[in-house]
Amino acid sequence: MKLALSTHLFVRHRLTTVWLDRTWDAGFPEVEIFCARQHIDYRDKAQVNELAHWFHDSELKVHSLHAPMYSDDVWGRSGPNAVIDITETTKARRMNAVDEIKRALEIADVIPFRYLIQHLGVTGQDFDQRRWDSAFSSLDELKVFARQRGVEILLENTPNLLSTADRLNAFLAETHLNLNYCFDIGHAHMSHGVEDQFERMKERIRSTHIHDNDGSADLHLLPCKGNIDWPKAMQLLGSRREQYPLLLELKEPPGVERLADEAKSAADRITEFL
Predict the structure, then answer these.
(1) Which residues of 89-100 are buried (b: 16+ CB within 10 A; e: fewer)?
(2) Are 187 and 161 in contact (CB under 8 A)?
(3) What is the tens place of the pLDDT at every residue in 117-170?
(4) Where are the domains of the chain?
(5) DSSP E strands: which ranges in the chain?
(6) How far apart are the first and last CA of the chain?
(7) Is 119 helix (H, G, I), strand (E, B) or coil?
């Protein structure tokens, strides 16, 4: 299977060409850029253009962009107004969220990528029909904006009651938005289980987020460092290997210097189960 790496692994650092060189040198042919303003400030044209020039001459390709979750550069610690939630029921707040995601999508004007990975709601959110209505309005607008840039929006299963696999299927059936999915294996493990969630989502999976955890906390560990059954999980993922890459979305492990190399070693270990 094709491998890819999310720059979430380096999210505590400003994204420079040094990190991208290390990703390529480790053996990853594709990358997902994780939009956090302390990492890549999509409002900073100088940073975006510097990366664009590098990608123009590089063999490393951008598979996807992860939509921003906060508008500030401190993981939302500046206050609740920094949270980007397309399911906001207050129109002004919802529109602010949509506008912020559009700013990130404009990266595609200079750095081509195929997919935007989008959360439906935030972690721990309860189900609320009004939030589905807001999500439809947001995605209907974002879908057009993305398509104009050659980008397709993928919805990610996230740890809340709005976007489990069955809720995502129901949302698409109700709204007829005809979107596809990014299957997050760690989030599935925290929900109704990897096999259950994969089987419900498999027809629409176009990308993945590969990481491990203990089944309760969203730890983004290297594969085989939590308690996901990786031999079984890889048999599931391998059953549709032409649909998507194995894209690792990891948290920076403490004390590890060669981050991309460590990620590649973990990827090689789990692909042995195919």
Answers:
(1) eeeebbebbbeb
(2) no
(3) 999 999 999 999 999 999 999 999 999 999 999 999 999 999 999 999 999 999
(4) 3-271
(5) 3-6, 30-34, 61-66, 115-119, 152-156, 180-184, 205-209, 246-248
(6) 9
(7) strand
Q: Phi-psi category of 69—alpha, beta or left, where left has phi over 0 and alpha has psi -120 to 50?
A: alpha
Q: Give the integer Cα–Cα distance in Å for 155 and 143.
A: 11
d(CA 264, CA 257) in angstroms, rounded, equals: 13
Six-digit token pair at 200? Answer: 């419900």
Q: What's the rounded mean pLDDT across residues 82-96?
A: 97
For the record, the structure tokens of 166 come out as 């069955």
Please name the fold of domain 3-271: TIM Barrel (3.20.20)
Q: Mean per-residue pLDDT for 10-14?
A: 96
pLDDT score at 230: 98
Contacts from 90-99 at CB under 8 Å and sequence distance 24+? 94/134, 94/137, 94/138, 96/71, 97/138, 98/138, 98/141, 98/142
In this prediction, residue 200 carries a pLDDT of 98
AA identity, residue 243: Q
Question: What would the pLDDT profile of 186-227 be if each residue is shown by its tens digit?
Answer: 999 999 999 999 999 999 999 999 999 999 999 999 999 999
